[in-house]
Write a structure and sequence with these properties.
Blueprint: H1 2-41, H2 43-73, E1 78-94, E2 99-103, E3 121-135, H3 158-186, E4 195-198, H4 203-206, E5 214-218, H5 226-235, E6 241-247, E7 253-259, E8 275-277, H6 291-301, E9 308-312, E10 315-316, H7 320-328, E11 337-340
Antiparallel strand pairs: 1-2, 1-3, 4-8, 5-6, 6-7, 9-10, 9-11
Length: about 350
């Protein structure tokens, strides 16, 4: 009688589980459809948000990969490793003979794993926001089903379980170290701590900073780039002086104190010093990768990627701030530029 009651409870729970799974699928599809529609209307913002999501998703994937590897090494049965969250779009499992591929499978579909088949299904889910590892006898959302399988998470030695849990954080730390090593080995384009423009009547203007001034230290920190100049006001307390060290042409240094201020009439804005970065006299060469953009820029300005400005209205310029100063002296809507040009680029560029 007891077995009949248990069977009846299982049969009654299946329709409810299927209904919940269908709701999850419908909700995921609605979210995806709304996101796609909004992204089409706001492509620029959507790309930025997608980049952030993929970035966080990558961090989560590294974290989950740590759990996956250590669980495998520790003898824990891993049932699924998923890239993304939500309903499964694609599932791949290696069989004793060949492969099993599930495309858009039904949510909650029971899988039959025969002897010799790989125990783990590798999945790609609908929402690109991370991923997960599903181990036998382990749950992140509540009590896991008990299992007599010796390879279930709860039945493995406590040392193996601790190592599996800790592996996610360890892999994140190691991954961060490797990424920083690769970035610094290949170099990072950092804007130099050189004043490109000073806003009139700004704190930097009142302190005597001028275009072309080289900043060699910010609040005592000597390894600086232009991001340091931007972050210092944002991280300072209201009314707190920011210490800059300016290098003079003869190599000597001068200490300058600047109190960052919010933009007049905009109390919600960040505190700023009024310093803008130094630009370049060369048109960005990488623009050549987009032929349509190259054509549009040429029609608008007559310039090609890689062009280097040498003079404006016949007056030579050697620095970006010198160009800005010359430009400010021209009381016309147009100016004649003299440029050094290498267009079209060579095949090995």
């Amino acid at each position: 009688m007891t077995e009949q009651n248990e069977q009846a409870q299982q049969d009654s729970s299946q329709p409810q589980e299927a209904q919940n799974n269908n709701k999850q699928l419908i909700l995921s599809l609605v979210i995806a459809a709304v996101a796609v529609a909004w992204g089409i209307k706001n492509p620029s913002t959507a790309l930025r948000i997608l980049a952030v999501m993929l970035g966080f998703g990558g961090i989560i994937m590294i974290h989950e990969f740590g759990h996956f590897i250590v669980a495998k090494l520790g003898g824990i049965k891993v049932e699924a490793f998923s890239i993304g969250m939500g309903p499964v779009v694609l599932g791949i499992r290696k069989l004793k003979k060949g492969w099993k591929i599930r495309l858009l499978p039904k949510i909650g579909e029971e899988q039959v794993v025969e002897e010799g088949d790989n125990e783990t299904e590798y999945q790609i889910a609908l929402l690109p926001i991370g991923g997960f590892v599903r181990m036998l006898g382990q749950s992140d959302t509540g009590a896991a089903d008990e299992s007599s399988d010796p390879r279930a998470y709860a039945n493995r030695p406590i040392g193996v379980r601790i190592a599996t849990v800790a592996a996610g954080v360890v892999f994140n730390a190691v991954g961060a170290i490797i990424i920083f090593m690769v970035l610094f080995m290949n170099g990072i384009d950092l804007k130099p701590a050189v004043v490109g423009r000073v806003v009139p009547n700004s704190p930097a203007y009142d302190a005597g900073l001028k275009e072309g001034d080289k900043i060699v230290a910010v609040n005592g920190e000597r390894f600086v780039d232009f991001e340091s100049i931007i972050l210092a006001p944002a991280l300072s307390e209201p009314g707190e002086p920011i210490s800059f060290v300016k290098q003079l042409p003869d190599g000597t240094e001068e200490d300058i104190k600047i109190i960052a201020e919010k933009r007049t009439g905009d109390p919600s804005s960040l505190r700023k010093t009024g310093i803008s970065p130094a630009m370049t006299l060369t048109i960005e060469p990488r623009i050549q990768r987009d032929p349509q953009l190259v054509e549009d820029i040429y029609k608008l300005t007559g310039l090609y990627p890689g062009d280097e400005v040498k003079a404006i209205n016949g007056q030579a310029v050697q620095t970006p701030w010198g160009f800005v100063q010359r430009q400010a002296q021209i009381f016309q809507s147009q100016a004649e530029l003299t440029v050094s040009r290498q267009w079209p680029p060579s095949e090995d560029t």
